[in-house]
Amino acid sequence: MTNLDEPLQKVLGDKTAKVLSKGLDLHTVGDLLHHYPRRYAHRGELTPLNELADGEHVTVMAEVVKVQGRALSRSPGYVLEITVTDGTGELKLSFFGRRGSYIPERDLSPGTRGLFAGKISTYRPRSGRPQRQLAHPQYKVVAARDADAAAREWADEIIPIHPTTKGLDIDAIGKSVATVLDLADLGDDPMPETLRDRLGMIPLADAYEGIHRPKDWEQLGRARKRLKWDEAFVLQIALAQRRRAAAALPARPRPSTGDGILHAFDQRLPFDLTEGQLQVGEEIAADLAESHPMHRLLQGDVGAGKTIVALRAMLQVVDNGGQAALLAPTEVLAQQHYRSITRMLGELGQSGQIGGAERATRVTLVTGSQGAKVRRASLLEAASGDAGIVVGTHALLEDHVQFADLGLVVVDEQHRFGVEQRDALREKVSGGRPHVLVMTATPIPRTVAMTVFGDLETSVLGQLPAGRSAIGTHVVPPEKPAFLARTWERIREEAGKGRQVYIVCPRIGEREGDEGDVPAPPDEEGRRSPLGIMELLPMLEDELLAGLRIGVLHGKLHPDEKDAVMRRFAAGELDVLLATTVIEVGVDVPNATAMVIMDADRFGVSQLHQLRGRVGRGTLPGLCLLVTDAEPGSKARERLDAVASTTDGFALSRLDLEQRREGDVLGAAQAGRASSLRLLTLQRDEDVIRLAREEATALVEDDPELERHPGLATELASLLDEERTEYLEKT
Fold first, then answer.
1. Is the N or C terminus of the chain more exposed, i.e. has fewer CB atoms within 10 Å?
2. Do 296 and 431 sit in the same domain of this protein?
3. CB of 590 within 8 A of CB of 441?
4. Residue 670 domain-assigned?
């Protein structure tokens, strides 16, 4: 027997171990044991040769009647052609290889009876009629006396197909797995026996046997159930321990005062908060009143009113003498937040200024592009505590940025920030941790996964504020060129009514290979490179939209230029804003009613939903046109059709998740390593994950250090190596 940490070269030899290490990143017995089959083949029922159809996966029993080998004319290869019959028809079997390589001439001589399995295809010889064939079929020679029984057994056999690599075929990797399966010492079962019995789970050793060498589909199902549970349960143990440790960290309570700036702000709101905003506000207010740090995710669809919820939380902290920092991923968004918050607060945000309210705070902006004088003044307001609300970009993370009493960190579009960046801002609090509120509109897959897996407490804004208009979304496809001509007409119509339009391109296009702020997804179908705004601009100015006032916005402009363009657009001085994805989040111009997204198939689902959320922000209906040359039936076109079919951001995040998967909850995806999740998926296994969270929470409360569960402690230690432990501590 050998333990799971044993290097593979000691078990399989240097040659095989080297291939597994280089090609599949498998180094130990445990690595290979967790290298599960990606699918399972089933040979199925025997098929008469006269009933074969192209594309079918079949198993036939037949007798060899002719064997002929020949050299290939255009390469040094060799092909063995074997003709078989079952009395109803004939079938050609083709085996390709090189002279000297293994080709089954000796096994399949004339008169031999056998079972042959594979996918039927038709080939056309230079002379003669088309013939059905099996290329490189699986086969098994059977004796006449036990042919029927062997046929049934062979047809019913489940064939595990393990992911393989160059230099190691499916049979070879299957034999390697079988070797470690027979030799591995699994130690204590990590799952407590009482829990295993209560949930009807099989022992771990039986699960590994069932996943790698299932005798039937029922055994395979039991194995997958157990191994999925282990992935969910061990991960939830890690997160439960983290939540327990987080609850023990100190944070200064910031309870609602009832009569401060927040109360005055609520009294002056020109509209009623939605029921969802009030409910979420209460959840956040309760968290802020605790003596341990809040760590909450605020999910709300585009336009659901997350900013005002976050602002009310910031004012609650300010009323308690603390400060709040709002971290935004771009300068455009930071400036937008700064202007929006300043406008909403009015005199309540003008502390120490003429016209300021008696009880007020101050809002300041910190960005990397500020001039030295303005930056010094902003940093002084943050460090002295004069500014209760500090809005900024990554510049807030720099060492010289200090706060008097940072009580709340709000992170907008948190997936744009790395773990270390978010951690740097939290470290600016001495003697404890700040409360943290993370916001996102359409959760990217990993964010959705983190939510369901339980790393964050979650608040959801499910309804739009009153007065928000619907957004109609339509695909402008290549098979209907008149639709594109109508697109430019529609822009002119909107401008003629005094309304404004966004046109979005995936790249800047100033020079070859310039992909702008966000690289476009790789082209799936070998089409042309995506259109850049600098390539489209002359066409718009000279022909398509001649006479309209067009502004340009992209990530390579100087921040002052970006701000100037946005101010002109917001003031109605521009009819059209031609931009890259710098407008993806936060930009709020109620008079903008239409958006045209060029090469829309080059954007992800979440990006498209975020982009179209820039229109329909006032009382006028919004329109989003997705221009594409993706053909009907392609994956890219299916993605666009899905976006056009719904404005439900949470439904779209599911689609995004299905296409991209959730990444590794413990950060391995960011570190370029294999995921800890092999069988567990968010879409199919939410019930498993939720139950695992309940059971893990109860077990950790009863046995925080897993002293009475050594097998589970060992499994957790293998999951949480030093890198992943550090990741969990930071998140």
1. N
2. yes
3. no
4. no
The verdict on 91 and 207 lying in the same domain is no
Residues 62 and 141 occupy one common structural domain: yes
Cα separations in angstroms, 533 against 247, 315, 395, 541, 615: 49, 40, 28, 12, 20
- The domain in which residue 244 lies consists of 190-248+687-731
How is residue 17 written in tokens?
Answer: 């171990």
The pTM is what?
A: 0.69
Say if CB 409 and CB 254 are below 8 A apart: no
Total H helices, total E strands in the chain: 25, 21
The answer, yes or no, to whether residue 511 has pLDDT greater than 60, is no
Residues 6+ apart with CB under 8 A from 138: 43, 116, 117, 118, 159
Cβ–Cβ < 8 Å for 160, 212: yes
Helix, coil or strand: residue 674: coil
pLDDT at 47: 74
- Are residues 334 and 443 both part of a single domain? yes
Q: What is the 3-state secondary structure (H, E, C) of 685-718?
A: CHHHHHHHHHHHHHHHHHCCCCCCCHHHHHHHHH
- Which token pair is 71? 């050299």
Instruction: Give the count of beta carbons closer than 10 Å to the beta carbon of residue 698.
Output: 12
Q: Distances in Å between the alpha carbon of 24 and those of 16, 575, 723?
A: 11, 54, 20
Distance of CA 31 to the CA centre of its chain: 24
The tally of domains found in the chain comes to 5
Whole-number average pLDDT of the chain: 83
Residue at 681 is within a domain = no
| Separation of CA 667 from chain center | 13
Q: 680-731: per-residue pLDDT in tens?
A: 876 678 888 889 989 999 999 999 999 999 889 988 887 765 445 554 444 4
What the block records as the tokens of 433 is 């941790």
Q: Are residues 630 and 499 in the same domain?
A: yes
* Continuous H helices in 289-440: 306-319, 331-345, 372-384, 419-426
In 3D space, the residue among 601, 683, 606 whose CA is nearest the CA of residue 648 turns out to be: 606
How many Å apart are CA 389 and CA 318, to the nearest integer?
8
As a whole number of angstroms, the distance between CA 575 and CA 549 comes to 5
What is the C-alpha separation between 499 and 571, in angstroms, rounded?
Answer: 11
